[in-house]
Each structure stands twice: as structure tokens, then as C-alpha cells.
Automatic annotation (TrEMBL):
<protein>
    <submittedName>
        <fullName>Carbohydrate ABC transporter substrate-binding protein (CUT1 family)</fullName>
    </submittedName>
</protein>
<comment type="similarity">
    <text>Belongs to the bacterial solute-binding protein 1 family.</text>
</comment>
<dbReference type="InterPro" id="IPR050490">
    <property type="entry name" value="Bact_solute-bd_prot1"/>
</dbReference>
<keyword id="KW-0574">Periplasm</keyword>
<dbReference type="InterPro" id="IPR006059">
    <property type="entry name" value="SBP"/>
</dbReference>
<dbReference type="Pfam" id="PF13416">
    <property type="entry name" value="SBP_bac_8"/>
</dbReference>
<dbReference type="GO" id="GO:0042597">
    <property type="term" value="C:periplasmic space"/>
</dbReference>
Length: 428
């Protein structure tokens, strides 16, 4: 289950997550909002971690609440913050960092990390993940369930098309050439598309991968300036539009994020671009041998990072904050980070996790699990700005206008940049 597939949580779940600071004499309660619907495998994993931590730390009780999608979870967290009783700890998108700072809803972790061991732990995460976790010398988020975009392909379809089933396209030109061979047409109907890049839900994320590959950085580190209309970004959007319109190897119009894995399983597409967080989903549901590779390169390789970070409530009591930091340190230790990665498909957040015996054994039996980790060498921060949801919506709407043909790519990106400028000028 990937962070971009989570469905709506319930109002009852919201109420269950905000408990009184002390649930028993001498016990510190850590209320914990987590972005997933009630029930399912992810919740069982988190419940098990909370219970295990409680056994080892009987003076602390971690109470998870499954609060819906990431978008719904941040709304619930901020609503609770304004009411004065926010959850002590939340997992929200790494790109929500500036929003949480601007709302004065979070406190940095640095003040709770005093010893050399504490500081070594903080320095142990992959640098690419820390780009969306730190700002102005402070650490606002701790990486937990993180991802990159990878390419999945159907090895049987490759073989049928006369392609090497063990070789993924290495660059944009090969991506098109392979997709042309993989597209199956019967008269006026297309039975199998060569490739599929989603353009709803998280279109900005997929476009950003193409933009990085073309040499564009969509936003600065301060989150107050964008480059949506840069020539390299235009090159990226033009390529995305051309896959359907010019090359006719991808379905025309918008392509849904949520149904893309199913289209892959049902052989409606031979390749797909989606998160490594779908890795376990693909492993469990693909009825054919599949491959996983880094995204094809243009001028360079590249993918934005993605996924969620832990955030610490500014309004929690000092005791709750200390207890929450202890839980975050505990759950991100290499052995647990490795197990979380194996169970979910997310990238383990530290190099130390890949040195554990359990992860080394996992990579021997399932090498695709190493692809997203290896791609971190080429990864950049996911698009994140002040008023991030408004800025990304401006870009999303214009990407969809371009793929639907209602705007030329140049006009779409100029409009997106103009709206981003209007929103962000107050932050410069």
C-alpha cells in the first residue's frame, strides 16, 4: 500500500487519536496520526510497532489513529492544532514541511538531540531524504516511509515484442522505441499500451521526474520560488504530451494514478512509472515476471523523493515531546527500518538498514528492492513550497490541461508559473 493509494479515514478514528496527556498514573501518552484508512496490513504493522515499543517502554503509550489520506490527515492535524489538542506525533508528507512551519504547528527535533549518539542517529539518514526534512539549519521532519519513482515492466510482454526481457529502457529515446514495440493494436482498438505515466493525483511528481532528467529544479530550497516555465521543464512536459499525441504509445488524455497498477496487472500497459511504495503490491499481484529499474535518463538520471516524515507537535507537553522523540528514534533504527521496507516496499531511510542481515538476505532473494535505494544517488527533493497545496494544484491543473489538449505545453507552464509567483511573492 503506497502513500498515494491511501483512502478516507473516519471521524471516529479522529476522535480516538486525541487522548488526555496522562492515561494512567506515571504514563505519558503519545497520540499519533498516521495516514491510512482504518484496517488493512499497514495498520497491523503500525499497531504491532506501537505495542512492541510499549512493552519496552511501559511508561509511554503510543496510540495510533488512522486518519485517511495524507491530504485528509494534514487537515485533521491542523484542525486539532487550532483547537488546542493536536496529536503529539504525525506522519505527513515530507512536502508539508513549510506548511507546518508556517502554521506554527511543529517544533524542530534538534533540541531533543543532545548526545553524540543522538547526533549520529540524525546524520545516519540518506541525504536525499533530508532535503525535504530540514530548513534554515533546523530539522523539522524525520524520514520514515519514503520513496522514489521507478519503472516497472512486464517481462513476458517484452519477450513477446522481441525485446530483451531483462533490459529496461535506459533513456528517453529507448523508452519511446520500446513502447512502440510493446503497443498492441487491433484495428482501431489498443489492447496494450507501451507505457503509462499517471497524470492525475500526483501529476506534479511524475512531471518533476522528467524535469529533473532534463536538468530543471522545480523549486528552490527555501520553498519561495519555482521554475515551472524553465526550458527544461517545457522539454519534460512536451515529452509527456508527445508519448500519447505524437508517438501514440500511451493512452490519450489524463491517466489515473490509482488505477495504473491495476492496468499493469491486467496487461493494459507493458510499462508503468509509479512509486517504489507499490513494490510489495506488484510483487503480490502481478501474475507475470516483472522488472524494476531506475527511470530512463534524458540529460541525466533522476527522480524526486517522496513519502512521509514524522512531525512533532509544538503544542504537546515537554514530556510528550520527549516520549515521541524516543519512539521516532526507536522505530527508525536500522533493523526496524529494514523490516518496514521489506514489509511495505518503501525505501529504508538509512544506509545502516541495508547493512542488516535481514535486508541483505532480502536483497539476495528479491533484487528489485535495491533499485529505489540505488536511485537515491540521482534523486532531488520533491517539489515543496510555502502554501504547497495551492502551488502544486496550479501545476497539476495545467499539466492536465496540456495532456488533454486544452492548452499548449508552453501556455500551461506559463500559467502555472504565474500562479505560483502570485502565491509565493509574499514569502520572498
Amino acid at each position: 500500500m503506497d502513500r498515494r493509494e491511501f483512502i478516507v479515514g473516519t471521524a471516529a478514528a479522529l476522535g480516538a487519536g486525541v487522548a488526555s496527556p496522562a492515561i494512567a498514573q506515571g504514563t505519558t501518552d503519545v497520540s499519533f496520526f498516521f495516514p491510512v484508512a482504518v484496517g488493512g496490513p499497514i495498520t497491523k504493522l503500525i499497531d504491532a510497532y506501537a505495542a512492541e515499543f510499549g512493552k519496552e517502554n511501559p511508561s509511554i503509550k503510543v496510540t495510533p489513529t488512522y486518519a485517511g489520506t495524507y491530504q485528509e490527515t494534514i487537515v485533521k492535524v491542523l484542525t486539532a492544532h487550532k483547537s488546542g489538542i493536536p496529536p503529539t506525533l504525525s506522519v505527513l508528507l515530507s512536502t508539508d514541511m513549510f506548511t507546518m512551519i508556517d502554521e506554527e504547528a511543529v517544533t524542530p527535533f534538534d533540541g531533543f538531540l543532545k548526545s553524540a549518539e543522538d547526533k549520529a542517529w540524525l546524520q545516519g539518514f540518506y541525504p536525499a531524504f533530508m532535503l525535504n526534512s530540514q530548513s534554515e539549519g533546523k530539522t523539522w521532519g524525520i524520514p520514515f516511509q519514503r520513496s522514489t519513482i521507478v519503472l516497472y515492466w512486464n517481462k513476458e510482454a517484452f519477450k513477446e515484442a522481441g525485446l530483451d526481457p531483462d533490459k529496461a529502457p535506459a533513456n528517453w529515446a529507448e523508452h519511446v522505441a520500446f513502447a512502440e514495440k510493446l503497443t498492441k493494436r487491433d484495428g482501431g482498438n489498443t489492447q496494450q499500451w507501451g507505457t503509462q505515466i499517471p497524470t492525475t493525483g500526483f501529476a506534479y511528481w511524475l512531471l518533476q521526474s522528467l524535469a529533473i532528467q532534463s536538468g530543471s529544479v522545480l523549486a528552490n530550497q527555501e520553498g519561495n520560488k519555482t521554475a515551472f516555465d524553465a526550458p527544461a521543464t517545457l522539454e519534460a512536459l512536451t515529452y509527456l504530451v508527445d508519448l500519447a499525441r505524437k508517438h501514440k504509445v500511451m493512452a490519450p488524455g489524463t491517466i489515473d494514478w490509482g488505477t495504473t497498477p491495476r492496468d499493469f496487472f491486467e496487461r493494459k500497459t507493458a510499462m508503468m512509472w509509479t512509486t517504489t511504495g507499490n513494490l510489495t503490491n506488484v510483487r503480490n499481484n502481478a501474475k507475470f515476471p516483472f522488472g524494476v529499474a531506475m527511470l530512463p535518463a534524458n540529460k541525466r538520471r533522476g527522480s524526486p523523493t517522496g513519502g512521509g516524515n514524522f512531525y512533532l507537535s509544538k503544542k504537546a507537553t515537554p514530556a510528550q515531546q520527549e516520549a515521541a522523540v524516543k519512539f521516532v528514534r526507536w522505530i527508525t533504527q536500522p533493523e526496524r527500518a529494514a523490516k518496514w521496507s521489506i514489509d511495505t516496499g518503501y525505501v529504508a531511510v538509512s544506509p545502516g538498514a541495508y547493512e542488516t542481515p535481514v535486508m541483505k538476505e532480502h536483497l539476495k532473494t528479491f533484487p528489485p528492492a535495491a533499485v529505489a535505494r540505488d536511485q537515491l544517488e540521482f534523486a532531488l527533493a520533491e517539489l515543496s513550497t510555502h502554501e504547497n497545496q495551492r502551488v502544486t494544484k496550479a501545476l497539476e491543473d495545467n499539466i492536465q490541461a496540456a495532456v488533454n489538449g486544452t492548452k499548449a505545453p508552453e501556455k500551461a507552464l506559463a500559467d502555472a508559473q504565474a500562479e505560483a509567483e502570485r502565491i509565493l511573492k509574499a514569502y520572498r
